[in-house]
Amino acid sequence: MVRETRLTRDDFVLPLFVCPGSGVRREISSMPGVFNLSIDETTKEVAAAYDAGVRSIILFGLPESKDELASGAYAEDGIVQRAIRAIRQSSPDVLIMADTCLCEYTSHGHCGVVRGHEVLNDESLDLLARTAVSQAAAGADLVGPSAMMDGQVGAIREALDESGFENVAIMSYAVKYASGLYGPFREAAQSAPEFGDRRAYQMDPPNVREAMREAELDAAEGADILMVKPATIYLDVLRMVRERFDLPTAAYHVSGEYALIKAAAQKGWIDEQRVMLETLTSIKRAGADIILTYYAREAIRALEQIK
Q1: Would you say residue 149 lies in a domain?
Q2: What ranges in the chain are assigned the alpha helix state H?
Q3: What CATH code is carried by the domain that includes residue 119?
Q4: How is residue 243 annotated by DSSP?
Q5: What is d(CA 138, CA 140) in angstroms, rounded to the nearest whole number?
Q6: How high is the pLDDT of residue 194?
Q7: Confidence bin at 199 (pLDDT 50/70/90)
Q8: Residue 208: closest CA among 189, 228, 181
Q9: Residue 2 in domain
Q10: pTM value?
Q11: How far is CA 166 from CA 156, 173, 269, in A?
């Protein structure tokens, strides 16, 4: 009766990795229970997740080929665009989010246009906007710009509106730290940088005032939802975003956070279900309205058992 924070199935978004081929269901070694899925397997996974109570998903793509300008990210027949259409047909009631970035599609693995060894912020905005429009045209309900290019939210909002997609929402990765917890994701999405790292455009972990400036800029440019990533070791930042901005707040319980729980549980050192729920509760308690987590299905199942 007096519990202050409650998790519900509507809190969760399930990330999925779509890859080329047919009948592909390839487990990611560093993320037990998470798979690279071909489009046909993705539609099955979404349907099964929906039956289990998951109402929202976010898609990441592994293209057939990569190039310097990430053409697979904004191609009409790109891997994510085709997956969106297939899911829209097979599971029409699922809310479909699309990650809007270039790193999975570039030959160099960075989130923007590269010249020499420099990532060019302004030249990347057009490609990000084209990607968002192509995802919306395929049927995405929401796009999630995650490249951390300055001005990306404004460029995407303008492009969506000009293309007739005024009702497609933007969930901005407003506060995305250059974290060591992304390692398993880079295996899953095959998106490790060919040179250097992403510290030049992702946030420095010790900084929090800068995080507020980043969130303020994205809110002013038209973001509908502000995200903090990673979640659990940045709960203080999540709380500050929640208190400062009158927008829905999201948090990404990232691959490394998931893998840490999985690994400790496999060793028998912790009770996986208990720690999972405790972790997700901490994220909601800190202020998240929306939690992106690979545990979405397991969390809903555990909550049903508790009932």
Answers
A1: yes
A2: 39-52, 71-74, 79-90, 121-138, 152-162, 183-189, 209-221, 235-244, 255-266, 272-286, 296-306
A3: 3.20.20.70
A4: H
A5: 6
A6: 53
A7: low
A8: 228
A9: no
A10: 0.94
A11: 11, 20, 49
Is it the case that residue 195 has pLDDT exceeding 60? no
Q: Which domain holds residue 240?
A: 9-306
Catalytic positions, written as ranges: 176, 229
- Could you give the number of structural domains in the chain? 1
- What are the two backbone dihedrals, phi and then psi, of residue 176, each rounded to the nearest 5 degrees? -120, 110
Name the more confident of 206 and 193.
206
Answer whether residue 3 is part of any domain.
no
Element (H, E) at 98: strand 95-100
Per-residue pLDDT tens for 224-236?
999 999 999 999 9
Q: What is the mean pLDDT of residues 263-276?
A: 97
Model confidence band, residue 113 (pLDDT cutoffs 50, 70, 90): confident
Say if 259 falls within a structural domain.
yes
Q: Are 163 and 136 in contact (CB under 8 A)?
A: yes
Residue 73 to residues 46, 99, 115, 129: CA-CA distances in angstroms?
Answer: 21, 10, 19, 11
Residue 226: per-residue pLDDT: 98
